[in-house]
Design goal:
Blueprint (H helix, E strand, L loop, with lengths): L11 E4 L6 E4 L10 E2 L2 H6 L3 E5 L3 E5 L4 E4 L7 E5 L5 E5 L6 E5 L13 E5 L15 E6 L10
Parallel strand pairs: 3-10
Antiparallel strand pairs: 1-2, 2-5, 4-9, 6-7, 7-8, 8-9, 10-11
């Protein structure tokens, strides 16, 4: 039996800052998965992320330029461009069948497109918490200054 239902989700193009690493993706649930995390690593990285299934991300250029970083349990796999240093995506520890994608890498998107971004409580990872529940630790708010002008 064949599946006659085409995937209606949009395909996004993404790249690191220097353009060496390029990838395409479909989001699992649109922009509804937007989040930050307050674990020791994410606090320093500072990226806003959205989710894509592993099968919905394809590196189209620069796979050999990706650098892998793992820490603590070694389960999460964080990928960076080895040339410009930008975090592109990571295989999630809490959902190993998904990538967290750096919103800033997605063409036409910015972390500042979101007025309110939930911050996941990552200081105690959901996998290390009784019941494995995810908690919101707080929110990051952004309000543009109308007097600031452009870039």
């Amino acid at each position: 039996m064949t599946d006659n239902h085409a995937d209606e989700r949009p395909v996004y193009q993404a790249a690191c800052h220097c353009g060496t690493v390029r990838f395409s993706l479909r989001l699992t649930d649109g922009l509804r998965t937007v989040r930050r995390c307050n674990c020791s690593y994410c606090r320093m990285r500072g990226a806003v992320a959205v989710s894509a299934n592993l099968s919905d991300l394809t590196v189209t250029q620069g796979r050999d330029a990706l650098t892998l970083y793992q820490f603590n349990t070694g389960e999460a796999k964080h990928y960076f461009c080895s040339r410009c240093g930008i975090y592109t995506f990571h295989q999630r520890r809490s959902s190993p069948d998904q990538y967290g994608i750096n919103v800033a890498c997605i063409e036409g998107m910015s972390p500042f497109d979101f007025d309110k971004v939930p911050v996941s409580e990552g200081r105690v990872h959901p996998k290390d918490r009784p019941g494995g529940a995810s908690n919101v630790a707080g929110w990051i708010l952004y309000q543009a200054n109308p007097e600031a002008g452009g870039d």
